[in-house]
Amino acid sequence: MGIDALSQELSRIESDSVPWLTYPLIENSQFKVLKVNEETNTVILKFRMGPNVVTPRHGHHCVATAYTLAGAWYYGDLEFRAGDIAFENTLEIHQPITRGESAELLTTFIGGRGNDRLLEEHADDGSSHVLRTRFFKAMEGITNEQLALLDLQSLIN
Length: 157
Prior knowledge:
CATH topology: Jelly Rolls
Oligomer: single chain
Largest sheet: 8 strands, antiparallel
Number of helices: 4
């Protein structure tokens, strides 16, 4: 592969230039969508949870990874600290939480060609909703002001 071909496939993402967005589905958390590839249903994002955050119970319809950049977070008694990686490739329901400190993660979802179903969140009332590639694509490169104008319901399921 020549340099020209490589430069068409390789891109540099300046994470610090992407704004943190208030995550509308989880209190006291923020995220920034760094890259979405709709062809391969791949999402790369940073996710930040403040102290004592309880996320919705969820499972993945894809391969998901979470590399812990800072802080600590938990799945029940399983603790993840800076440098730890969570690797998930099952729809098993789990619920990430933080305790007394915040956490920052670099997360990837890889659905593959033809699979845009990435994350399924489960509410206490038994209902659930699916976050597809388009949910994350709509948030790639936007500001909090633009996020406030999105119709989130139209992006879910």
